[in-house]
Amino acid sequence: EILSGLVGSEMCIRDSTGTESQGEVTMRLSKAGRIVNGVGADLDIVVASAKAYISALNKLHSKIEKLNPQL
Predict the structure, then answer these.
(1) pLDDT tens-digit series, residues 7-48
(2) Which of 17, 29, 51, 58 is the most exposed place for a label (fewest CB within 10 A)?
(3) Residue 53: beta bridge partners?
(4) Are the C-beta atoms of residues 31 and 60 closer than 8 Å to each other?
(5) Residues 6 or more apart from 47 whose CB is under 8 A from it?
(6) 13-24 in b/e burial notation, b at 16+ Cβ within 10 A?
(7) CB neighbours of 4 closer than 8 A, spacing ≥ 6?
């Protein structure tokens, strides 16, 4: 049920330089007018993307309302 009405509006992928470069993904999801960001980082960009998605889903599932929600 949490996935019905879910909209992905933005995804940003960044990588760092160096021998152990790590990818960082920021994903923005919205549902029923509520917008959240999820962030994930890993050596594997696919894993980083999955972490960001799960982070955003967890925030959407949370019943806690923020005082200053992101616009």
Answers:
(1) 666 667 777 666 677 888 899 888 888 888 999 999 888 898
(2) 17
(3) none
(4) yes
(5) 40
(6) eeeeeeeeeebb
(7) none
